[in-house]
Amino acid sequence: QVPRAPSQPLAGSESRRFTNKHSKKALKASLTLGILLGMFFVAWLPFFVTNVAQAGCGCVPDGFFDVLTWLGYCNSTMNPIIYPLFMRDFKRAMGKFLPCCRRSGEPRPSAISLSLRNSNSGPRAATSLKNVL
């Protein structure tokens, strides 16, 4: 048996709100992951089972195999639809870069600001080859 540490009572409504907020986020993340994985298995599992059956007996018609292949491809097209529906952060990030999703009044990021943001460095003073070596 492992001894338990005495549990501490919650520190009022603030800790309950904190717990509630995180449990809602965890529930939403679990739901999103469950939907994505469920759709993946529904779309690709028949393809893989049929692929194994085709290798074993060669009894799967080509048309049926093509339909299952395209079902898997359709799953890949569903991911960009599912992510924005269930993930607010993804929706915000897409809104910054896609003109169709941007709110009016938001400036479009420039290529220079994007490259600086992605390079993990800020603006630097001009350096010559001598200073680098």
UniProtKB/TrEMBL annotation:
Keyword Membrane: yes
Keywords: Cell membrane, G-protein coupled receptor, Membrane, Receptor, Transducer, Transmembrane, Transmembrane helix
CC per GO annotation: plasma membrane
TM stretches of this protein: 26-47, 67-86
Bilayer topology: Multi-pass membrane protein
Gene Ontology molecular function: any one: G protein-coupled receptor activity
Annotated signal peptide: none
InterPro entries in alphabetical order: GPCR_Rhodpsn, GPCR_Rhodpsn_7TM
GO BP, sorted A to Z: adenylate cyclase-activating adrenergic receptor signaling pathway; positive regulation of MAPK cascade
Subcellular compartments: Cell membrane
Pfam families, per the entry: 7tm_1
Domain of life: Eukaryota
Domain annotation G-protein coupled receptors family 1 profile: ranges: 1-83
Protein name, as recorded: 5HT6R protein
Organism from which the protein derives: Erpornis zantholeuca
